[in-house]
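Predict structure. Chain length: 244.
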Amino acid sequence: MPASCRCADRTIRKDMFARSLNFPPQLTATFGVAAVLLLAITSWASATGLTFGEDLLRWMESRYGSAARDRVVALQQLVEDGQRESERTKLQRVNAFFNRVNYASDYARWDQKDYWATPFEVLGLNSADCEDYAIAKYFTLVSMGIDEERLRITYVKSIELNEAHMVLAYYRSPAAEPLILDNLTARIAPAGERTDLVPVYSFNGADLWLAINRVEDKKVGDADRLSRWRAYQSRLMQQMAAGQ
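Prediction complete.
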């Protein structure tokens, strides 16, 4: 199991600037301006699945080495096998696949306060932080045929760690209690059982939701507001196109 996710580079505090932008007070009170500034308005489109090819594999080997290429080949096989599996099996296999990746902070890997690594960067370095685990699982499950409307990348506060954290939530139906995929545990548990987590907001390629409690949430906007999300998708598409 990866070491505790240290995603608390974002200071947990209230911020008047964020309030002036009319973001929900629950979000600003918990994550402060560093998180809500992700909501700067930009253009965005729904998430695309991962694609693989020889150019990508050559780029991985050239940039990160043969072991990294092998990890991407294993991911490709996981995605291909997943087309024939049940959604529960897909969740279990993807959660286990990425939870094997070593934990490392953004400062340690990228010398940045907050960097969202693509699945290929994660497998290249064989390291991730909580955001990277959650987003890599999201794109992999979309690639395996799970509708992105059933998946939400979710910011939470970890009570035990007393810091910000990110997980992936899976909704079997819009009104269902979500299942939580977390790099801190191999168990995929219903949200109501994760009393150690306090949800704040979630998003996918289409929409943004503000948490009401551990099970319910309310749609408050679209994912067009997530500038970091858009930049991430652009970088991912460039890597898939030709390993550039």
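Summary: Residues 8-46 have pLDDT under 50 and may be disordered.
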